[in-house]
Amino acid sequence: MTKYVGAVDQGTTSTRFMIFDHSGGVVGVHQLEHEQIYPKAGWVEHDAMEIWARTQDVIKGALDKAGITAADLAAIGVTNQRETTLVWDKKTGKPYYNAIVWQDTRTDKICNELGKDGGQNRFRDKVGLPLATYFSGPKIKWILENVDGVRAAAERGDAIFGNMDTWVIWNMTGGVNGGAHVTDVSNASRTMLMDLRTLNWDNEILGIMGIPRSMLPEIRPSSDPGVYGYWSKVPVCGDLGDQQAATVGQTCFAPGEAKNTYGTGCFMIMNTGTKIVPSPSGLLTTLCYKFGDQPAVYALEGSIAITGALVQWLRDNLDFFDFSQHVEDYAKKVPDSGGIYFVPAFSGLFAPYWQSDARGVIVGMTRFVNKNHICRAALEATAYQTREVLDAMEKDSGVTLTALKVDGGMVYNDTLMQFQSDILDVPVVRPVVAETTALGAAYAAGYAVGFWKTFDEMKANWQIDHTWEPQMDDETRDQLYKGWLKAVQRSMHWLDE
After folding, report:
1. pTM of the predicted model, to two decimals?
2. Alpha carbons 70 and 444: distance in angstroms, whole number
3. Most confident of 81-95, 263-277, 298-312, 423-437
4. CA–CA gap between residue 159 and residue 215 (Å, rounded)
5. Number of helical H runs and strand E runs in the chain
6. With contact defined as beta carbons under 8 Å apart, do 162 and 217 qualify?
7. Euclidean distance between CA atoms 8 and 166, whole angstroms
8. Widest Cα–Cα separation across the chain
9. Closest CA to 213 of 254, 278, 160
10. What is the pLDDT of residues 101-140, one digit of tens each?
C-alpha cells in the first residue's frame, strides 16, 4: 500500500528528501549541504556530480529515518534551485563544466551585448524576463563559447542542457540508460528561451543566442499523469522550480494569492491565474504551474538575490557566529539598527531594479555601531527588499495584499518576521509546515497519480502556525523605508563598464 509521497528539494546550499503523508505531515526528512565554489569574484558554481551523490544519500536517509521503503511511495516530485545551469554529455553522464549558479554574474558582458539591440527588455514580451545574469540562456551561451569541445558536442547532439530539476530527473530515471531529458513549464520559463504563450522553446531567441535546440529538454506539465520516468519503480511525475513549488505548497491556487519564501534569496510570487500580466515595475512575468492538461497558470514574481545568504556571509566570511540562527540573538540585543542600512547587492540588485553593476554597501556608520547593529541591519535588509517587491506587485496587479503567507528557513526568526509585518503594515502568516517548497513538489507528483484528487484536498491541509501583526506607527515606518531607498541608491553603478 502506497501511503506517502516523496519530494527531492535540490536547493542552492543543500539537497533534501522529504516524505509526506496525505495530510501534508512530514514523515521523514534527510538533508545534506554541498560545496559552494567561488573561482573568481562574482562567479558561483556547484559540482553537479556531488549534488547527484547527495540526492541519492538523502533519499536513502529519509526512507531509513521514516522506516519505510520505496514501495511505500505513491510518487516522487522534484523541486530545484532555478536558473542554475548545467551542460553534460548524455553518453557518459559527466558534466562538461561545473553548474553555473543563478547568483553568478559572469554573463554580464553577454547580457550587455544582447541588450545593444533592443535594450534590457529585448525579449521581455515573449519570455516575461529582462536581460540579466540571473537566467539560464546567457549561461548556456557562456558555456558554449568558453568551454573547449562543448560547441562541437552540442552540434553532434551529445551535449545536453538542464537546470537542476532536469539533471536530477535524468539521473533518477536512468541517466545514460535512457534517462528522461525533461523539464516543466515553471523551470523552462526561467531560461529566457521559452515563449510564455506557446510554452515552447523560441527558435528566434535560440538563434540569437546561438543555442542548438537539440540541447534542450522536453517541456512537460509540472504535474504530469504521463509520468517522466521511474525511480525504483516509483513514478517521478512532479517538477516545479523551488519558488513555484512553495506557491503550490502554500496552496496559493487563486488569482491574487501570494507567498514569500525566505531562503538563500527571497522570492515573492503572486498567482495571476491564466492571465499573463506584464510588469512595468521590474517584476518577472513567469509560469506558476501547469497541472496535467489544465490551462497553464501564470504569476508575477519579485526575486531578491541575497537574504539568507547575507546571514551565511556574516557567519562564514566574518565569523560573527557559528550557527545562522544565532544572528537573532545578537539582533535582539539592540532596539534598532543604530541608523545603519545594509544593502546586500553582492550579485547586483534583482527586482525591481535589475542593476547588475550594483554592489553591497553598509551606510550610516558611526562609532556607536557594533556587531549587534550589523546583525539587525542584515535582517532588516530582507524585510525592506520584500517591501519594495510588494509595492511593485500591488502596482502591477491592482491587487492590495491583505496578508502575506511566508515560508522557508528564515521564518522561524521572530525578530525578522515582526519587522516584516511592521514595514509592510500587513499581517505575516506562517503555516504549520513552513517547508512548503518540498510539499509543493509532493503535491504536484501526488496529484498526477491521484494521491490528492482535488485542490481543495490540498487546501484542507494548510494550517496557520503563527501570525505577526503590525505594531509600528506610520511615521516611523515611512521614515525607516525612506532611509532604505536612499541607501539602495548608494549601492548602484558601483562597477565601471
Report:
1. 0.86
2. 18
3. 81-95
4. 6
5. 16, 21
6. yes
7. 12
8. 65
9. 160
10. 999 999 999 999 999 999 889 999 999 999 999 999 999 9
